[in-house]
Structures are given as C-alpha cells and as structure tokens.
C-alpha cells in the first residue's frame, strides 16, 4: 500500500501494513527515519559512498533489512560500498530500500 498523508500522528489514519516512505531530504534522512519511530515503514532512499553511506549504516544498525534497487540484499555496511561499485554511478549515489525485520 502506498500512502500519502500530511505529517501528523499516524493514529489519525486507518491504514494497515507498511507505508512506503521515499526519503529525499538532502542529508536529513537519519533524522527523518528517527521521526517515524514505531511506524511500519519501507524506506526508499539514496546513499553516497563519498559520505560514508551513513543512512545504510544507520538502518543496518537499527536492525533493518537493506536491499539495492535491484533486490540485492545488503547485509553489511561494507556490502553497500561493494554494491555501489557495481552501479553506473560509482562515485555518485546508490539507491536502496529498507524494511524492518
């Protein structure tokens, strides 16, 4: 289910299942993720090797399962860099999605 809702408490809405949240907040991804604490969400985001892949590291540290855009599971911070090397944007961002375990 794809949901669109204004930023307000989730309890106001009656959807079930995870929400897909596309993060495009120019460096504030970790704060945005923390702001959804307790929400059943699938995060879609990009991460940058030249920044150290901080979003991926954060999500893995929080117990999320992370995948590359092609479905490749990323089980470690190091694997995120390896995934990026296989893309056309070697020094640019890689696209990922993350789901709670």
Q: What would a concise description of this structure say?
A:
The chain is of the alpha+beta class.
Distance between the termini: 18 Å
- Contiguous helical run count: 3
Q: Which structural class fits the helix and strand makeup? A: alpha+beta
What spatial form do the alpha-carbon principal axes imply? globular
- The residue-averaged pLDDT reads 85
- The total number of structural domains is 1
What is the H/E order? EHEHEEHE
Beta-strand residue percentage: 15-25%
Question: pLDDT under 50 segments (min length 5)?
Answer: none
Strand order of the largest sheet: 1-2-5-3-4
Amount of helix: 10-25%
The biggest beta sheet reads: 5 strands, mixed
Organism: Sphingomonas limnosediminicola
Protein name: Methyltransferase FkbM domain-containing protein
């Amino acid at each position: 289910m794809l949901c669109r809702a204004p930023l307000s408490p989730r309890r106001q809405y009656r959807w079930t299942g995870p929400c897909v949240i596309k993060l495009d907040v120019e460096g504030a991804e970790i704060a945005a993720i923390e702001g959804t604490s307790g929400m059943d969400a699938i995060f879609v985001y990009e991460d940058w090797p030249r920044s150290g892949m901080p979003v991926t590291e954060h999500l893995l540290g929080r117990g999320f399962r992370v995948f590359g855009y092609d479905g490749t599971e990323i089980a470690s911070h190091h694997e995120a860099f390896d995934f990026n090397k296989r893309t056309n944007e070697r020094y640019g961002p890689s696209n990922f999605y993350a789901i709670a375990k």
